[in-house]
Design brief:
The structure holds 2 protein chains of 2 kinds.
Chain A (H helix, E strand, L loop, with lengths): L1 H28 L3 H6 L5 H11 L5 H13 L5 E2 L4 E2 H36 L4 H15 L2 H15 L15 H28 L1 H8 L4 H29 L3 H6 L5 H10 L3 H29 L1 H5 L1
Antiparallel strand pairs in A: 1-2
Helix pairs in contact in A: 1-13, 5-6, 5-8, 5-10, 6-8, 7-8, 8-10, 9-10, 10-13, 12-13
Chain B lengths: L3 H17 L12 E6 L14 H10 L4 E3 L6 E3 L2 E8 L2 E6 L13 H11 L15 E8 L2 E6 L6 H4 L17 E3 L5 E3 L12 E7 L3 E6 L16 E6 L3 H9 L5 E3 L3 H8 L4 E16 L13 H10 L2 H9 L4 E2 L22 H10 L6 E7 L3 H13 L2 E7 L2 H9 L5 E6 L11 H5 L10 H11 L4 H17 L3 E14 L2 E2 L14 E2 L1
Parallel strand pairs in B: 1-12, 16-17, 16-18
Antiparallel strand pairs in B: 2-3, 4-5, 5-7, 6-7, 8-9, 10-11, 11-12, 13-19, 14-18, 14-19, 15-19, 20-21
The chains are: A mainly alpha, B alpha+beta.
Chain lengths: 305, 518
């Protein structure tokens, strides 16, 4: 088990290291960061002075090593555009993305699991078709369009919810619905198929035979069984949402991590891009590690092989 | 199982959620607050350290400059100055107005003006728009109300540079600028992090970098300012990245003013009863840079007939009218027509594809040719240009890059044909446009010595009539030789609360100090 753990851990570290090298090179290859920072009206001398001030004149490997050394000391550098430390910038943006992601996953679960159960209870009926249709809509409709529809209905026509910003919890309702809806189809379909299997299984039939109330059979015996793969899927979806959604955050003017990443790329704010990529890569790698370890605990064949 | 009690509790919770939801009406006449939004994230509101148009707008509300250009008439009027005179070609002397106070109560004097410009002119001050301060050799406070600018060379555009875009701060303003880590472990001063202290019609109440700026009316604003007295109590700026969201907020009263409304939304918005939609021109011009000098090698662009063919091939009027939309104007010369010295009395190339084909044949390209076309901004406009060129036989290989990637090859002289745009940094003087491209700089693809000589003289002659004549000569030759192909000026569409009375001006700014509720 220990060897397995160490091997996995080493893999995780390698993935993070490779990601950071690739990210660093890509950011520099996409154009001259000094030119981007100096702006359109800058003379060659201005660009040169920016290059010197920020150290872009030094060889790339040297810049990278300097950066890594600082990160190991816990210093992510400074956003040249936002005039604050990268740690501060991330601390400002992360809570919004975390709130949004958590609310969105709650919404997705509350919508897709009942739908999945209903669809499985009445397979191939109108109920099933409607449930599947509703969920598949989440996949078919582009998220920006769905977000704008929500704005139009609840913000412009009914005027019950705020459209943009993050001033209060009500500001998160529409974005959470828009983001969560996108995660619905996968969770719903997995719940449905899991439930279909579970409802056919022996223990459910036995529970029914005992004369237990129908809801108790469905929720306690069938659903609990069907939920095992769904829970891992939800974890993956949550990881995806914590990476930030550029589209949803942009449409609802939320200052989250996704929006920050996109803006930082536009203005070549390298230190911020680096830190975000590193954190997202680390989060993914660690989640994968956690899943691997869990699987290893559950199934010994994995940790031996 | 869910009991009735629980169901009622859940329903009550849902109902209260709907009731608590704030109504978006934080803007508007009822609470005397004008809320405006754009897509930009504003990191600093110091105009010396950020030249976003939004920050130029804020500077006009918060700050005053020595001179003021009336946005409605284009006339220069003394603002912090009472009067000015050119003592000689390189010496500009201002008499300051009395009784002007900064928002902290301190009275303005010549020391403040000298401090501000002596800080900004330093090569290491980090000021972003160098053009505005690079001409200054030194600034001296001769007496408490007299300040003297020494220029490095005669600079007739100085009055323009000192109008609206170079705010005056109190002496010692940047003393407490934070030190931040710079390159190679050295510390550097971050002057842009200091919140501006000005004398203007609005005061800063709150600034949240990247999200919002709140300004309140300066009730002590000096009488007799050519900007007038502010009327609206509070101005709030917000960043909303998405245009559709901005429009939705405007329609529901969450915003009072937005800009950059795309043509497809403008019509729809204009039909709303609570919204006014107006378009106005901006200083940004769109043009083709052609390598007449052969910097990038022996390309067809070296031939005048080919360049003329390019000019005849493109229907600028159609692009400007149908694609760019209201506020945009077709251009004939290589400058923005409202700029001082921008003569439009030059050779025009009206749309004539047949003539273009004939010229290509005369130049030895009866079947046209292939050439890379570089661009970085507004891809649909570039594609329209490419289609017009294809129609006469010039097959372009479109290379659409980000500015930071295009800048290198362009300035190193490797680009035979590029679709570019230039905003003149908002400066209304031809020295900021045509001189930028034809005075032998890295952007000069014509390298015409005669044109350069005229422009050098025009940029450094104080006599306005002489300047006009020199710019006129240069622009005429540029058009005759078809060095560059001017296409159109950009327009901007503004949409705002119908209860708002605000002039829409051709300087791509909003003058909220002139705004009133109806």
């Amino acid at each position: 088990m220990l060897r397995f753990l160490l091997r996995r851990l080493l893999m995780t570290v390698l993935v993070i290291a490779v990601t950071s090298v690739v990210a660093f090179s890509l950011v520099h290859l996409s154009g001259d960061p000094a030119a981007a920072m100096a702006g359109e009206g800058a003379s060659p001398a201005d660009v040169e002075s920016v290059r010197k001030t920020y150290g872009f004149d030094r060889p790339l490997p040297e810049q990278y090593v300097t950066w890594v050394k600082r990160v190991f000391k816990g210093d992510f550098g400074r956003s040249h555009y936002l005039r604050a430390s990268v740690a501060q910038v991330l601390a400002d943006h992360a809570p919004i993305t975390i709130t949004l992601g958590a609310l969105a996953i709650v919404f997705a679960v509350l919508l897709s699991i009942p739908l999945g159960v209903l669809a499985a209870l009445y397979p191939n009926t109108l109920v099933d078709r409607l449930a599947v249709g509703l969920a598949v809509g989440g996949q078919a409709v582009p998220s920006f369009l769905f977000a704008l529809l929500l704005i139009y209905i609840f913000g412009v026509m009914l005027r019950v919810l705020p459209i943009s910003g993050s001033g209060s919890w009500t500001h998160f309702v529409l974005p959470a619905v828009a983001l969560g809806y996108y995660a619905t189809p996968a969770i719903m379909r997995l719940t449905r198929s899991g439930m279909l299997d579970a409802l056919q299984s022996d223990h459910v039939r036995t529970a029914r035979a005992y004369g237990l109330p129908a809801w108790r059979v469905i929720i306690k015996h069938a659903l609990r069984h069907a939920m095992i793969p769904v829970v891992s899927l939800i974890a993956v979806q949550l990881g995806f949402m914590l990476g930030g959604s550029i589209v949803i955050e942009t449409v609802f003017a939320l200052k989250g991590v996704g929006y920050l990443a996109w803006q930082s790329i536009q203005r070549s704010d390298i230190e911020v891009i680096q830190a975000i990529l590193l954190l997202i890569a680390a989060a993914y790698a660690l989640l994968t590690l956690a899943a691997d370890v869990l699987n290893g605990v559950i199934d010994p064949r994995i940790r031996v092989g | 199982m869910m009991t009735n009690k629980k169901i009622w509790a859940a329903m009550a919770f849902a109902a209260s959620a709907v009731c608590i939801a704030p109504q978006a009406a934080t803007a508007g006449k009822s609470n005397d607050t004008l809320t405006w939004a754009t897509a930009s994230e504003v990191d600093t509101i110091d105009l010396y350290y950020q030249n976003l148009r939004e920050v130029v707008i804020m500077a006009h509300q918060m700050c005053d400059t020595l001179m003021h250009r009336d946005p409605r008439t284009g006339e220069y009027k003394p603002l912090l100055a009472e009067s000015f005179k050119w003592a000689d070609d390189k010496t500009l002397e201002f008499k300051l107005r009395h009784g002007v106070k900064f928002h902290n109560g301190k009275e303005l004097n010549a020391e403040d003006v000298a401090y501000t410009f002596n800080h900004a002119r330093q090569p290491d001050s980090g000021v972003v728009t160098r053009l505005l301060v690079d001409w200054i050799e030194n600034v001296e406070a001769v007496s408490p109300d007299t300040v003297r600018f020494k220029a490095k060379a005669p600079t007739p555009a100085a009055i323009e540079y000192l109008s609206g875009i170079t705010p005056v701060y109190p002496k010692g303003h940047y003393d407490n600028a934070p030190s931040v880590p710079g390159a190679a472990g050295k510390m550097r001063r971050d002057y842009g992090a200091v919140v501006p202290m000005c004398t203007g019609p609005y005061k800063v109440k709150e600034f949240k970098p990247g999200s919002s700026v709140t300004l309140v009316k300066n009730t002590d604003y000096f009488k007799g300012s050519p900007k007038g007295q502010p009327s609206i109590g509070t101005l709030v700026y917000r960043t909303i990245p998405d245009t559709e969201t901005q429009v939705a907020e405007l329609v529901t009263g969450g915003l009072d003013w937005i800009w950059g409304v795309p043509p497809e939304n403008a019509k729809q918005l204009a039909s709303m009863e609570n919204v006014t939609v107006k378009a106005a021109p901006t200083t940004r011009i769109s043009f083709l840079s052609l390598d007449a000098a052969g910097r990038s090698g022996d390309t067809p662009m070296k031939k005048q007939q080919v360049r003329e063919a390019v000019a005849y091939a493109i229907d600028r009027k159609a692009i400007s009218r149908d694609l760019v939309g209201e506020g945009s104007e077709p251009l004939v010369s290589m400058c923005y027509p409202a700029q001082f010295g921008c003569s439009t009395d030059v050779k025009d190339y009206p749309y004539n594809p047949q003539k273009a084909k004939d010229l290509l044949k005369q130049a030895g390209f009866p079947d046209g040719f292939e050439i890379p076309l570089y661009a970085y901004r507004d891809r649909p406009y570039t594609e329209a240009v490419a289609n017009y060129l294809r129609a006469v036989g010039i097959k372009t290989d479109l290379r659409f890059l980000q500015w930071k990637a295009l800048r290198g090859p362009l300035q190193e002289g490797k680009v035979a044909m590029a679709h570019l745009s230039w905003g003149s940094q908002g400066v209304l003087d031809a020295s900021a446009s045509v001189s930028n491209y034809f005075e032998g700089s890295v952007d000069d693809y014509a390298r015409d010595e005669e044109v350069k000589k005229w422009l050098d003289a025009a940029d450094s002659t104080i006599d306005p009539d002489k300047r006009k004549e020199l710019y006129g000569k240069a622009l005429k030759k540029i058009a005759d030789k078809a060095y560059f192909v001017p296409l159109f000026s950009y327009g901007r569409t503004y949409a705002f609360n119908k209860e708002l009375d605000i002039p829409v001006t051709p300087d791509e700014l909003a003058h909220f100090y002139l705004a009133k509720w109806k």
